[in-house]
Request: fold
Amino acid sequence: MCGVLGMISSEPVNQLLYDGLQMLQHRGQDAAGIVTTKGLTFHLHKGRGMVRDVFRTRNMRDLLGNAGIAHVRYPTAGNSMDAAEAQPFYVNSPFGIALAHNGNLTNIDSLFSDIIHRDLRHINTRSDSEVLLNVFAHELERQVSGSLLTVDAVFAAVAALHRRVRGAYAVVALIAGHGMVAFRDPFGIRPLALGKRANAQGHHDYMVASESVAFNGTDFERERDILPGEAVFIDFAGNLSARVCSDTARLCPCLFEYVYFARPDSVMDGVSVYQARLDMGIALAEKVRRELPQDIDVIMPIPDTSRPSALELARHLHLPYREGLIKNRYIGRTFIMPGQTVRKKSVRQKLSPVGCEFVGKNVLLVDDSIVRGTTSREIVEMARQAGANKVYLASAAPEVRYPNVYGIDMPTRKELIANGRNAAQIAAEIGADGVVFQELDDLTRAVQKLNPAIESFDTSCFSGCYLTGDIDEAYLDKLAIEKELAKAAAQAG
Reply:
């Protein structure tokens, strides 16, 4: 999962892009980058690490111009240790294009071959984002007549890209001398929102971002979500044009965004993430009533994502809600840390129990999801060491049984604790006295009722149903082998 940001303004954008990236830091902690443009020149700085570590004052001074794009990276494809794969990426033809991408392409092998052998373009990394950039650049070049670039040509290039590319992608790109384009895949799997604000010239500045929370900290107002298959082009004078560039577009956002990735203060595809998580707790309460012993003394969230669901669950069960686990906010999100060893080590540094809330009590811990089970096992053990009598665990999401190929790092089934296990077996595996999972139908209803325009969701990690229709056992097996090889190479290095 990554975060993307783009801006056309009447004033310098370097500080605004930096501030916006910090609001999206939860979406990626591996690398960060900003490209700005002044005249026909791009100014780029990127590197590995958190936003605050990548950008120093001297870097910010060099990011000149009133337009730019930015990215925070959580690696799902390519090499997480390679600084060259930090985004944005750049090509010099046509015009000069810089691009940042959130998502994952599923037909990357055929695209890579076509770009090299048919389009005769050069790819410098194994990043699917660089592949996507070159597809867009090639299609844009086909639409250009001489040195003239029209809005119709931009939209035609995006339409051609949709026909060639499969997978999930939310994109922001700068075209030197012309403007900024933003677009989503035809399913709208990955989020992208449009914001604006009035400027001193009586016109509007525009921002696009993975989440609306980026607008909150930069004085922009959320205008709307960019539609699935839609492209928005904003020229450097601030004129906005938009067009749906796919005949098959339908809104099917990633359900896991609402469960875990998005910040609760975001509005995503018309849905308040916070309200959705509250409503997840209502349905989960009924499941707890049916499936767990009625001897629970207290309900506690595993901070922070599950807090709204735990609050509502406690209210419906008429049980005390307590903050028994205190989070160290200076430790990164364990789920998106590369490598199981780092992930396991960080759990005890990240969470600390409040002993008096556990001693002699039957505790129900509420988490947003259970993926690999490593974190859950450590937390259950922590609760027992703090004096809990019994430890139950409730997940606001269903069992994660399948890999996600659309931008979430769940590449192999054997890493998923729910693969081949039922709830009782999962409880035994993590040392809990009982485990309850949300029903998929209840989860989809909790989100969909907040915006009935959402036709369906990408539920692939829960259901094994892949929207793009190109995922089979051979694909998943190949992905698993590649992941194992990458892990071995990282350990050897």
Summary: The chain has 16 helices and 21 strands.
